[in-house]
Amino acid sequence: MTVLILTSEEDVTGDMVVSELHASGAPVVRLDPADLPGKAVLSAHYAHGDFDGHLSVNGQVLSMGGLRSVWVRRPGEPAAHAAHRSPWLTAETRQALYGMLFSSSARWMNHPRNAELARLKPWQLRTAHLSGFAIPPTVFTTSPRLAREFADEHRDVVVKSASGPPPGDPALALPTTLIGPDADFSAVAAGPALLQRYIRKRADIRLTAVGTQLFAARKRARPGQVDGRYGDTGHGWEAVAVPERIRKSVHQYTDLAGLAYAAFDFAEDGEGVWWFLECNQGGQFGFVELATGQPIAQAVAQWLTCLTGGGR
Amino acid sequence: MRPFTLKYVFPQRLPTVVTPYRFDARRQLNVLPDGRPAVSDRALLLAAGTTTSTAGSKTHFDD
C-alpha cells in the first residue's frame, strides 16, 4: 500500500517525511498537481461495474486500489506547469485528479473538504471556543463604528489578516500589528478588518498535532513583541510539555474539525495561560523539528502508514 | 478606499537564497551535490529558511 504526497518539488519539509518513509520501506509517490498534465499521467476508469484509477510520475506508478493515504502538503495548482495553462485547464485537471482520489478509500491528512473549512478564521475561533481554549476578544467587521467601539473597550488592539498578505511584486508582508489609540477606522468599510485584543505575551507557543500525538515548542518573546514570525527575538524554539487542559482542547478541536494534522499558535501570557490565536491546518513544522529535535516528520510518516497516531 | 488592514502592509525584502540542492526524481527528494539528501544537512535548511513559518507560497497562507 502506497502513500501519496501532494507537494512541490522544492518542498524540503516534504523531503523530511519522504526520508522517513524511505527508511521504513513504505512505498511513496510524490506528485505536484502542477505537473499534471505533462510530467504526470492520470487515468480513472469506470468500467465493468467497478472503479479503478492510476497515477504515474517520475517512473512511479500508483493504483487507486493500492493507495493507503494522501498527505496534502504544498500542492501546486493543477495544470500550473502545463504548456498551455488556463483556468479551464486547471478546473478540468482538478476534477480529474481530486475526483479520482476522493473515489478511493485512502485516509487523508488533511481532507481538502475539512481543510477548506478549517482555514476560515471566524470558524476557527468558534471551534476553539467549543473546544475550551482561552480566546482573546476578537471582532471581524466592516463597520467603522464597531471597530472603534472594540478598540475603545480593549485599548491595546492588534489587526491581522485572515488570508495572509496580498500577492504582489515585490513580495509584501502583513504581520499582526498593534494599532495606536488614534487609529482612523473609516477604511474598515472598504474591507473586513480582523481586530483582536493584544495579549502581552512572554512566549509564543507552536503546538503541532499529528493524529493523537502532540509536539509543543516555546519561544520566549521580547517585551512588547507582537508577531513572532517577524524579527529576531534573540531566543530559539525549545520543546515544552503540553498542559493536560490544552491536550484535551486540542483533541476536541481536531475531532470537531476532522483534522489529522494541525499547527496551533498560542500566546503565553505572564500567568502562563495559553491564548488561542489560530490553527493552521497546513502549518509548517520543519523549523520546529530542526530547532527542537521533536520527531514530527516521523510521526507524520507513521500516521500515513497507519502505524500509530489514531484515526483522525 | 484602501481597506484598513492594508495600511499595515509593507514590502518584504526576500533574501536571495541559492539552495545548493536539486530535486532527484528517482529518489523523490532534494539532494546535495554529493548525493546526500538535503534534509541531512540541518544547518543548511535552517540557513535557507525553507522550513520556516514565513516560507509559504502565495497559494499557501496558512503556515
TrEMBL record, chain A:
GO terms for biological process: SOS response. Pfam families: ATPgraspMvdD. Coiled coil: none annotated. InterPro entries: MvdD-like_ATPgrasp. Signal peptide: none annotated. One of its GO terms (cellular component) is cytoplasm. GO terms for molecular function: ribosomal S6-glutamic acid ligase activity. Residues 2-113 form the MvdD-like pre-ATP grasp domain. Gene3D superfamilies: ATP-grasp fold, B domain. This is ATP-grasp ribosomal peptide maturase. It comes from Streptomyces brasiliensis.
From TrEMBL, chain B:
InterPro entries: GRASP_targ, Rbsml_synth_pep_Strp. Pfam families: Strep_pep. It comes from the Bacteria. This is ATP-grasp-modified RiPP. It comes from Streptomyces brasiliensis. The lineage of its organism: Bacteria, Bacillati, Actinomycetota, Actinomycetes, Kitasatosporales.
